[in-house]
């Protein structure tokens, strides 16, 4: 099945994110964190306005499409030295079919394009399925991360990260070409490599 990642920009796409979030978070997180916290977090982070504000602040949202069907979404935030994977959600009937792996590959390419060598994320300590999936996808567990989110709720997570090997790209700050280790390519060394 052809998989596409579509960057969210229109009102209609933002509305799709809002309804996917409502469906997936309610189904997946209610047994983990309880209904009260799910409702609070959806209102705080995944309404149309909240998503639109996040996009305005530099968060990149993507819809995940398989064939003609939208089957999930992701959000990433480029930081100085890493790409923070803040959301990755596949609809329940489409899980464990390889879409998460394809999504992470896409995110690795995004990091490479920006010269970022690491992807980081946080995952609820009791979200055991996602924890296992991240481990299979090459992420290492860095230990507990506790975050107050207001309303008397906390996010009781593990921090995880994955290093990204650079295949060559462009230094995001200078625009200078880099080799696969992220080193700047000088014209002379490029010529030397060509002659060899
Ligand atoms: C976590 C999630 C994004 C992974 O996407 P996916 O499409 O199910 O993952 P894939 O099918 O590509 O699987 C990737 C790897 O993880 C493993 N995996 C996936 N789900 C797993 C689970 N529940 N338990 C153990 N391993 C799992 C797969 O076996 C695969 O490893 P392998 O290729 O070595 O066999 C998806 O399951 C999901 O949306 N879960 C619910 C929401 C969620 O918790 N999101 C993360 C928030 S932090």
Write up what this structure looks like.
With 196 residues, the protein is an alpha+beta fold. The chain has two domains: 3-165, Aminopeptidase; 166-196, no CATH class. It has six helices and nine strands. The protein has helices at residues 11-33, 35-45, 48-56, 99-113, 128-136, 187-195; strands at 3-7, 60-66, 69-78, 83-90, 118-124, 140-150, 153-163, 169-170, 177-178. The strands form two sheets. It has a seven-stranded mixed sheet with strand order 1-2-3-4-5-7-6, with helices on both faces. Strand 3 (69-78) and strand 4 form a beta hairpin. Helix 1 packs antiparallel against helix 2. The chain is globular, with a radius of gyration of 18 Å. Mean pLDDT is 90; it is low at 187-196. Residues 28, 88-90, 95-101, 123, 127, 129-130, 132-133, 136-137 line the site of coenzyme A. Coenzyme A is lined by residues 28, 88-90, 95-101, 123, 127, 129-130, 132-133, 136-137.
| Total count of helical runs of at least 4 residues | 6
Low-confidence stretches: 187-196
Give the strand line-up of the largest sheet.
1-2-3-4-5-7-6
* SSE succession: EHHHEEEHEHEEEEH
- What is the arithmetic mean of pLDDT? 90
Q: In this structure, how is the largest beta sheet organized?
A: 7 strands, mixed
What is the helical fraction, as a range of percent? 25-40%
Strand content: 25-35%
- In terms of structural class, how would the helical and strand content be classed? alpha+beta
Distinct bound molecules: coenzyme A
Task: For the record, give the distance between the C-alpha atoms at the N and C termini, rounded to a whole number.
Answer: 42 Å
Number of strands: 9
Structural domain count: 2
CATH class (first level) name of the largest domain: Alpha Beta
State the CATH architecture of the largest domain. Answer: 3-Layer(aba) Sandwich
> If you consult CATH, what is the topology of the largest domain?
Aminopeptidase
- The quaternary structure here is single chain
CATH superfamily of the largest domain: Gcn5-related N-acetyltransferase (GNAT)
* Molecular shape: globular
């Amino acid at each position: 099945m052809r998989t596409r990642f579509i960057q969210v920009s229109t009102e209609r796409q933002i509305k799709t994110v809002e309804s996917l979030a409502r469906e997936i978070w309610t189904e997946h997180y209610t047994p983990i964190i309880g209904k009260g916290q799910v409702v609070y977090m959806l209102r705080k982070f995944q309404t149309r306005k909240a998503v639109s504000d996040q996009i305005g602040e530099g968060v990149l949202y993507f819809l995940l499409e398989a064939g003609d069907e939208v089957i999930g979404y992701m959000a990433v935030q480029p930081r100085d030295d890493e790409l923070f994977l803040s959301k990755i959600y596949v609809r329940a009937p489409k899980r464990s079919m390889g879409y998460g792996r394809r999504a992470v590959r896409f995110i690795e390419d995004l990091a490479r394009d920006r010269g970022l060598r690491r992807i980081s994320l946080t995952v609820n300590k009791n979200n055991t399925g996602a924890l296992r999936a991240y481990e299979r996808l090459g992420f290492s567990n860095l230990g507990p991360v506790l975050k107050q989110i207001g309303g008397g709720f906390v996010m009781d997570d593990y921090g995880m990260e994955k290093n990204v090997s650079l295949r060559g790209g462009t230094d995001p700050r200078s625009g200078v070409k880099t080799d696969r280790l992220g080193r700047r390519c000088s014209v002379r060394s490029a010529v030397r490599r060509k002659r060899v």
